[in-house]
């Protein structure tokens, strides 16, 4: 196994140091380390961070390999600085059995670019009718700890309560896609002045907030862990803040696109901006950034949702919701949180690596950059600004909402257990 000496990187944006990677671990961090036998990676001026962990990735395999595969999605993840991603369960077949989660887990191992951590469905076929084999998935080789019907809300409160109670047995967490379905029938975009003017059916903030309010009460009542996917409204942040102040075991994530984009994007009628939950208002964006900064929102999660061209390049009403996110997630966080002074680099590491790893109960990720720790890390050039070109994406899909937008920060290298998955900005395999 090749030994790497990273020369002159700035761990967490601090003082320059050399980082020696040996046998999958960080063997040493210090000034002027000898390069004896090691391959040298010149990293002057680059920020070193722990490898990012995504709680919310759609890899589309099995079932929609025309949109993404475990391998292509893993490559996009590595290029974005990720070393672990949670693969959502809404595949075809649905990841609701030990067999399917083990298949996804194995495909991730074979690709070898990031650790692919399968999410198990909460209910059979994501139908919201009866619980899936949660225990069997937890005991499988994939060791599932995060369960979600993402794409669908577990709308039945009794079923949600039973899921929360069940996952306590193996320290699991239910990740809820908070959307009261009766309030979003036919919804196309955020419900407000713009939806009225554009003549598109609205998705009211209350449909998200009502489910979060219900679920934090349930989680508090049964003493279970709840995670809220892609929080998108100011009201949701307030409910989470209240629940945390009461000691409820609730965590939450926000997507890069909800930190940057607003419902003004819908004015273009370009379906690349159609997403669920929808892009919200300036006031919501401001509240989400503040909530992420003060820790009310624990993590940034991409909700990377690749779609084949025919599913996305159609009229707004027919287009599937969802957008790419893995490759630009860190850049968007740099723009919205670092350059605005809301988070420092340690804060970025916390929200994009440490806390998501803790929520997913991943032992080997989200670890500090320190001697003896697993060598999962990335090197970022924070100063470079470049225009996003979807054609250059490692994803099989092209539905990037950032096409043509200039964003700061370039991931120069990613290391998974001491082996580079990205070098000079390019995937190594
Ligand atoms: Zn969702």
UniProtKB/TrEMBL annotation:
Keyword Ribonucleoprotein: no
NCBIfam families: PRK09357.1-1 (NF006836), pyrC_multi (TIGR00857)
Lineage of the species this protein comes from: Bacteria, Bacillati, Actinomycetota, Actinomycetes, Geodermatophilales
Record-linked InterPro entries: DHOase (IPR004722), DHOase/Allantoinase_Hydrolase (IPR050138), DHOase_cat (IPR024403), Dihydroorotase_CS (IPR002195), Metal-dep_hydrolase_composite (IPR011059), Metal_Hydrolase (IPR032466)
Class of this enzyme: hydrolase
Keyword annotations: Hydrolase, Metal-binding, Pyrimidine biosynthesis, Zinc
Coiled-coil portions: none
Gene name of the encoded protein: pyrC
Reactions catalysed: (S)-dihydroorotate + H2O = N-carbamoyl-L-aspartate + H(+)
Name of the molecule in the record: Dihydroorotase
EC numbers for this chain: 3.5.2.3
GO molecular function: dihydroorotase activity
Active site as annotated: 303
Pathway it works in: Pyrimidine metabolism; UMP biosynthesis via de novo pathway; (S)-dihydroorotate from bicarbonate: step 3/3
Keyword Metal-binding part of the UniProt annotation: yes
Function description: Catalyzes the reversible cyclization of carbamoyl aspartate to dihydroorotate.
Obligatory cofactor(s): Zn(2+)
């Amino acid at each position: 196994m090749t030994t790497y000496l990273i020369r002159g990187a700035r761990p967490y944006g601090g003082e320059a140091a050399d980082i020696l990677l040996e046998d999958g671990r960080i063997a040493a961090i210090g000034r002027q380390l000898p390069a004896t036998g090691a391959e040298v990676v010149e990293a002057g001026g680059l920020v070193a961070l722990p490898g990012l962990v995504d709680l919310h990735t759609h890899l589309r395999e099995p079932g929609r390999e025309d949109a993404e595969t475990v391998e292509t999605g893993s490559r996009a993840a590595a290029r974005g600085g990720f070393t672990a991603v949670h693969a959502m369960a809404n595949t075809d077949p649905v990841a609701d059995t030990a067999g399917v989660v083990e298949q996804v887990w194995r495909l991730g191992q074979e690709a070898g670019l990031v650790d692919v951590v399968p999410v198990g469905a909460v209910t059979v076929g994501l139908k919201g009718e009866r619980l899936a084999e949660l225990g069997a998935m937890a005991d499988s080789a994939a060791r599932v700890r995060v369960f979600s019907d993402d794409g669908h809300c577990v709308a039945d409160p009794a079923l949600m309560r039973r899921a929360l109670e069940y996952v306590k047995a193996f320290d699991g967490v239910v990740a809820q896609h908070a959307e009261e379905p009766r309030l979003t029938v036919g919804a196309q975009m955020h419900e407000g002045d713009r939806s009225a003017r554009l003549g598109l059916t609205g998705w009211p903030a209350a449909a998200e907030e009502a489910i979060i309010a219900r679920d934090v009460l349930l989680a508090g009542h049964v003493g279970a862990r709840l995670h809220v996917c892609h929080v998108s409204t100011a009201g949701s942040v307030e409910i989470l803040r209240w629940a945390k102040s009461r000691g409820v075991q609730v965590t939450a994530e926000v997507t890069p696109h909800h930190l940057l984009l607003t419902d003004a994007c819908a004015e273009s009628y370009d379906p690349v901006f159609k997403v669920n939950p929808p892009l919200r208002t300036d006031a919501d964006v401001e509240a989400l950034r503040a909530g992420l900064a003060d820790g009310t929102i624990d993590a940034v999660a991409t909700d990377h949702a690749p779609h084949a061209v025919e599913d996305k390049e159609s009229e707004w009403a027919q287009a599937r919701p969802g957008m790419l996110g893995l490759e630009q997630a860190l850049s968007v966080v740099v723009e919205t949180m670092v350059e605005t002074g809301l988070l420092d680099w340690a804060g970025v590491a916390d929200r994009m690596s440490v806390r998501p790893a803790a929520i997913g109960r991943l032992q080997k990720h989200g670890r500090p950059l320190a001697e003896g720790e697993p060598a999962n890390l990335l090197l970022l050039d924070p100063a470079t600004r470049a225009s996003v070109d979807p054609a250059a994406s490692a994803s099989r899909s092209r539905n990037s909402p950032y096409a043509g937008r200039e964003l700061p920060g370039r991931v120069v290298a990613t290391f998974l257990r001491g082996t580079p998955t990205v070098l000079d900005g390019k995937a190594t395999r």
